[in-house]
Amino acid sequence: MDYLADFVDLLNKPVFYLNDNADIEGRNCSLFNQIKKIGYREVLKFKCSGKQLEQFNQYLLSSLELLNQNHNPPLPYRELKGIARSSSRWIWERFSESSFQQIQSNRSRKRWEKQQIIKKELFNQFGANKPNMSLKQIAEQFSISISSLNRWAEEFGWVKSKNDLKSKYEKIV
């Protein structure tokens, strides 16, 4: 192998390409990751409008052709066809309205569970005694939204009423 390597200039040949996240990956993987996002976003629109798998496949293939123009050198057309065909079949067969609702439900549950942990941590740290900070500062420190903290502040007894919250919030902003 060393003997053959003497005749090949490997330094000037790109092996990996950067994607949007600056992760190093091959062209096939990069295009696949981009097209699956597009596919999952669009598949329900195709299904609801009565279109078929072949039309979805053509849509993904045309999207891949556009994305492929960003690669130097671009992948051959037959590679794009393979990526589009496998992606479209996988997404079409495994993604439905009910699976989307389940995914959304799981995401919501995880967000809620995470917020409950933060809420408990916040209450354990401060209890009914509001720290000498604005609600905005507390929200930033705990990486939560001001609206969540406003709800919790009322529960913790940091404010007496929603009107009290409004006046405190107006002072912050």
Q: Helices and strands in order, then pairings?
A:
Elements: H1 2-5, E1 17-18, E2 24-25, H2 27-48, H3 53-68, H4 77-94, H5 97-126, H6 135-142, H7 146-156, H8 162-172
Antiparallel strand pairs: 1-2
Helix pairs in contact: 2-3, 2-4, 3-4, 6-7
Descriptive account of the structure:
The chain has eight helices and two strands; from the N terminus they run H-E-E-H-H-H-H-H-H-H. Strand 1 and strand 2 (24-25) form a beta hairpin. With 173 residues, it is mostly helical. The protein is 69% helix and 2% strand. The N and C termini lie far apart (68 Å). It has helices at residues 2-5, 27-48, 53-68, 77-94, 97-126, 135-142, 146-156, 162-172, and strands at 17-18, 24-25.
Oligomeric category: single chain
Give the total of beta strands: 2
Secondary-structure class: mainly alpha
What is the strand arrangement across the widest sheet? Answer: 1-2
| Rg result | 26 Å
How far the N terminus sits from the C terminus, by CA atoms, comes to: 68 Å
Summarize this structure briefly.
The protein is mostly helical and 173 residues long. It contains 8 helices and 2 strands. A hairpin with a 5-residue loop joins strand 1 and strand 2 (24-25).
Question: Can you give keywords for this protein?
Answer:
173 residues, two-stranded antiparallel ribbon
